[in-house]
Amino acid sequence: MKRLFALLLLLPVLAVSKTPVEEDILQRITDQNSPFYYTGLMMRYENGDATLSDEDYHYLYYGYAYQDNYKPLATNPDLEQLLALMQGLNPDQTDRTQLEEMLVAANAARQKDPFSPKILNVLTFIYESLGEKVKAEQWARRMNGVIRAIVASGDGLTQRTPRHILMFDHALDVMAAEGLPCGKARIVSRNVEFIPLAASYVIDGKKRKGFYFDFSRVYWNKPEGYTYKRDRTWQFNNLKPREYK
User: What burial class does residue 213 get, using C-beta atoms within 10 Å of its C-beta: 0-12 exposed, 13-18 middle, 19+ buried?
Assistant: First the structure.
């Protein structure tokens, strides 16, 4: 059975946690002589470059916060359309017309959120269902690269060591990818939210109640008087992606 989302089989994360340091990120992504110069990195990402490393994804993901297109508080009606198209989706009985309609919506939604694990996984599923394995593998690599970058940014087990995200939904996507059912997030400080687990999770022999995420980048350029309303999040509904080796 073709399955989409839920327990994501992550590739090995960075050997050492790589918490984003803003001065370092900005210096490297703006230096035209740097291997992490953002224009070049984004071109490689869009072209499906299989040689992108975990370090590349670190600067890709967190460097996006400095791009003009980064508008985390803007609405994304194309994502809403994509989620609506996927309501009641039976992965075993999709037709080409349905898949192509989803593809248009997914590509449009990605223009506002190019590193959304949810959207990247939908694109993996669409191309797999269309029989285009090479493209499916490219989208799966992108998805895994983004999730590895987030997971490596902090262990998320304390307020001082949170995982860092660019969009609120990315936190829920990562937890769903790890197979961790969660409850309602709550703000615990100016920059950090805590997402409780719906069931006990044991790490290194200790029970964990949830994970902390740093959302500070979301509000860097918040319009005056803006009140954020969390978008509807599509749950993963026991749907898995293919594993590509």
Answer: buried
Q: Which residues pair with 211 in a beta bridge?
A: 195
Question: pTM value?
Answer: 0.86
- pLDDT of 216 reads 95
* pLDDT one-digit tens code per residue, 27-66: 999 999 999 999 999 999 999 999 999 999 999 999 999 9
SS3 (DSSP) at 22: helix
Q: Which two tokens stand for residue 210?
A: 């949830």
Dist. CA 170–CA 150, nearest whole Å = 9
Q: Which two tokens stand for residue 68?
A: 């003009």
Q: What is the distance between the alpha carbons of residues 9 and 16, in angstroms, rounded to a whole number?
A: 19
- In terms of Cα–Cα distance, which of 64, 34, 37 is closest to 142? 64
Q: What pLDDT score was predicted for residue 233?
A: 43
Q: Which of 76, 34, 39, 74 is nearest to 60 (CA)?
A: 39
Nearest alpha carbon to residue 4 among 175, 151, 169, 120: 120
Pairing of strands 206-214, 163-164: parallel
Q: Which residues pair with 206 in a beta bridge?
A: 203
First-to-last CA distance in the chain? Answer: 18
Alpha-carbon span 177 to 73, nearest angstrom: 23
Look at residue 197 and give its three-state secondary structure. Answer: strand
